Amino acid sequence: MLLKTKFIATFFYGFVIFIVMRNRYFPTTSTELRWSHERSLNDDKRVLNLSELMNRHGGDDWLDPLLDELGPILQQQMGDLADWLEIMFNFYDWADPRATTYTLIFWLSCMMVSAFTSQSFGTSAVFWVFGIYFFFSRPL
After folding, report:
1. I need a surface site. Which of 2, 4, 27, 79 has the fewest CB within 10 A?
2. How far apart are CA 52 and CA 55, in angstroms?
3. Mean pLDDT of the chain
4. What is the arithmetic mean of pLDDT over 77-84?
5. Where are the beta strands (DSSP E) in 5-126?
6. How far is 127 from 120, CA to CA, in rounded Å?
7. pLDDT range class, residue 65, cuts 50, 70, 90
């Protein structure tokens, strides 16, 4: 339905607003967190698959040269990702209510623009923002 009506961006913005407001007014209880933790401990399949993967490729030396080349690049990208995840966690957790309120107002305005304008305008705006990010956020 969303693909047919071209309201994917509107749904995304509305979903972000919804989950942040839900966390503010209906926070997760300790019993829900305990149930989620117990459920995650019962699933052993991923741990076994990871150890099998490490045993299979542990003796080969193909990973060390690759990490030597990509290490500094990946380290910078992982640092940026960690900063971004901390910002998102603080946004979701209302660490600074004033900043979260302003960000929600921004997301609401983005939702309104995506709901009441054409898809071509939204697509060109997104590519414009990506272009500005690409050319001005990292030195070339």
Report:
1. 4
2. 5
3. 78
4. 91
5. none
6. 11
7. low
Tell me which residue has tokens 């956020």.
Answer: 137
pLDDT in tens, 123-140: 788 889 888 888 888 766
Of 42, 31, 29, 8, the residue nearest 114 (C-alpha): 8
Q: How far apart are CA 85 and CA 80, in angstroms?
A: 9
User: Sign of torsion, CA 114 13 134 66?
Assistant: negative
Q: Using the 8-state DSSP alphabet, how is residue 43 labeled? A: -
Tokens of 101: 């309120």
Please give the Cα distance from 24 to 94 (Å, whole number): 7
Residue whose pair of structure tokens reads 């966390």 in the numeric block: 23
How many Å apart are CA 84 and CA 81, to the nearest integer?
Answer: 5
Q: What are phi and psi of 62, to 5 degrees?
A: -80, -20
Tokens of 67: 């990490």
